[in-house]
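Record 1 of the preview.
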Amino acid sequence: ESGGVALYSFLAPLGAAFYRSPTESLRWLLLYISAILVLMSIEFHNASHVSQRIQVGYWTMNILGVSAITFAAAFIFGKDLEEEYRRSEDLLQNILPKPIAKRIKQGELPIVDN
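->
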């Protein structure tokens, strides 16, 4: 019943992987995993039959497994994108004078000086 909410809550660490620093996104992931584990441990202890406990365990593994794989892909993509951005900035700085590179980054096109 709460699976949809758990999946929607995964948007916080996933969004952090794309838009925040790696350290901050890992904090969001750890907070997400902690919340899922706490909620599922409560659910596990409230289950009256062994079959319900097994179902809760499998549900938890499925949610966390898919979340971890998705987060890892987004995290790696974000780090690679950040590295490529740094490389392009370095290349721009090496090719053009700093004032011209700054004007290009600010969107001033075409660059024509007297």
